[in-house]
Structure formats: C-alpha cells, structure tokens
Amino acid sequence: MITVAFSNSKKSCFFITILECIVDYNGFSQFIIGIHNENDLVVFDKFDKTYGDKVDYWHKTKIIGKNIVLLSSPKFKIGIEELLKFLKLDFKIITKNWNDPLMQKNKKSKRHVRGNKINLEVFHSYNDSIHYFEYLESKYKDIVEINDLGITSNGRIIKYITIGYKTDKKKPIVIIESGAHGREWITQSSILIFIDNLIKNRNLYNKLFKKLNIIIIPSLNPDGYEYSREKDRMWRGNRNIKSNNCGVDINRNFDFKWKKDYEVCETYSGEKPNSENETLGFVNLVKNNINYIKGYLSLHSYGRYIIYPWSYEKKTYTKEHDEIVMLAKKMIFDIKKETNASYIHGTAADILYNSYGCALDYMKSLGVKYTYALEIAPSDGLYNGFIVSEDLILPASKEFEVAAVKFLNQIYEEF
C-alpha cells in the first residue's frame, strides 16, 4: 500500500493500481463540539478562522444546544485538540476507521435493476437509477417523460423527469431537485423511492398530475455521486477540478449573491456564477419555464431541517416569509405525525451558516413563492452523518415523501 498526501493536506489515499486511488479515512478524527451558549458561537469563530480550511465540516449550527461536527486528518488532530481546549469549548473526539464498507460492496455487487424489478432498499449507481426511470417512462407514457438537462464534465448526461398528464395547456410547475452533493447518498435513494411511489400510486395523486407538471432532477451531480461511491466517500463537489482539487460546490455556483470563495475546498464556488455545466443546465430549464414555476424543493442531508430563504444573511427574510414559515410548519407536523421524526425550520443563515450562490435563494430571487431545502435523515445527533447504513433508506425516504406531498398539495390548492 502506498499512501500519499493530497495538496490540501486533508486526505490521503492508497493505490489499488497505479491509476486507481481510493481515499483512505482510517485514523481520521471526528470532533463533536458542543454549543451551549452564545459565547460558544463567538469563540468558535476564532477556531474556524484557524482551522476552517483544514477540516471537513459535516454539520455546522447556530442553534444553542446543538453540536458542530467536523472530520480531521491525523495531521491536524493534536493542533485542533489543543486549540479547542485553549478556547474552553466542550468537545469529544472519535478516532477510528471512517471508511464506508458500502464502497467495497458497490464494487463487488451486480446491478440491482432487472427491467421492471428493483431493490429499493440499497444504494444504486446513477446508471441503474436512470435505467429504472427509463423503464417507468416506457410503462407509464401518459404521465412520465424523461429529458436531458445537460452533460457533466465527465460526460454523463443529467436527466430530469416530468410527471403529469400531457396537455396543450400550460400547467403550474414544481421543480424537485436532489443530489447536488455527491456524498449525500441518502438523497439519491429517497428521490428514487419517491418517484416510484408517486407513479405507481397514481390513483392517489391523479389530481396533482392533472393540474401540475412535477419536474424532478434525481441527481444534479452524478459525477460527484459516482466518485463518492468509487473513490472518495466524502466527495461533495462536481468533478470539474481544473481550478480546485475538490471540484465546485454546485450549490454555491448560482447567480444570486454569489461570492468567490477559495478558502474552503469543499465549498469552492467556482470561477464565476453559473460556471458549471450542472448549474447551467438547471438555470436553462428554469428560465425556459419561469412563468409557470410555483414551487422548488431541494433535497439534501443531513440533520432533519427545513430551510427557506434567505441564506446569505442572518435575520433577513422574504416578503412572503409568514406563508413560507406556515407551510414549513405544516410539513414538519405531517412528518412528525407519520414518522415520529422531529424537524427544525429556519433560514440557513439563522440556524446553520451563511451561504452564497445557493439554488434555494436563486429560485426565490426569480419570484418563485415557495422554495425550500430539506436536510433529511439522519438527525444531527447521529455522528456517522453521511456514512449511513441501507437500513435508513426507507425511513429517510418516508420523511421526504410526507413533506413533498404536503408541499405539492399546497401548490395544487393555491395555484
């Protein structure tokens, strides 16, 4: 085994062959930092200025009583520990092998899709998911249509699915997007199950299909997802690595309050707004339909949050804020009732962190009334975070489905 350090010193890898490098997270340390009061938040900013570009944040928060979770390579462990002690922040450390055994399973397993048969309780490759969607299109031609959104830097075709009865009359549109971040596998599985349930239970949703066109982008970042499955489990961005060896964070690349950011590798925002193929494909779809788009839902993980605009500044709200909050509360109520899972709502800037150039705010800036990001299961108290077992797929997908159906019904009733 040959181990080498990457240029950003955060990760190391071992070579299976001279051309195949698998990032190795054995011996990495997770720091769980308790935020108990406002002073802890102020003090943590000092830590962030020192180590923010050297660690991988799994969960950040501005909520008192929650934890900040980050992953560090062995190189920075001692320095982080000493600084946290100096700042008198409450923390604990988990040092172990953070490699995901499911990556090896992905390599060894055969396809889980055979025509009209699919195992919904496993993580699928992008190609397997698309093959299954193509089967659904062939069987349910009256309500399902698949089109191309764009081509990634690695040459993958990004697909989107339109669900709704075909008509010459223009219909209100809802856009649901998933998979902007490669390592958030649970979102890919949840959207697959949601699409399957929506179509196969069409009798329950006929009224929605008659009035609305539901456009679903199952994987906005298939390159990042496949790279996470095969080479680097913690990969977040796309695979355009010309300017940054972490790729571009698509959800920081949109042309609203965009901010050039080189400081944190994982959230690199690109050379300019809308610089990425994935972003451009999304933007073109939106611009071609903007007069009819009434709602936008973006699926992420993890933490169990429902997020709404604005994300770029704390205590900054939209003119429809009260109505947006009301719908968020309705979604949370239904999730709790149906699954017993507890969600928190708020703007990203108020409860998590400031973010710039994100799709949520971009869609709102175009006048779309209801725009949300759902950070689904696991909860922020599960410290494996992105490395989840396949047992979580069905519960997580149920939480998303309950929220999405409530969201769609609101659009149906209002527009």
TrEMBL record:
InterPro entries: CARBOXYPEPT_ZN_1, Peptidase_M14. Keywords: Carboxypeptidase, Hydrolase, Metal-binding, Metalloprotease, Protease, Signal, Zinc. Residues 122-411 form the Peptidase M14 domain. GO terms for biological process: proteolysis. The active site is at residue 375. Gene3D superfamilies: Zn peptidases. It comes from the Eukaryota. One of its GO terms (cellular component) is extracellular space. SMART domains: Zn_pept. GO terms for molecular function: metallocarboxypeptidase activity; zinc ion binding. Its cofactor is Zn(2+). Belongs to the peptidase M14 family. This is Peptidase M14, carboxypeptidase A domain-containing protein. It comes from Strongyloides ratti (Parasitic roundworm).
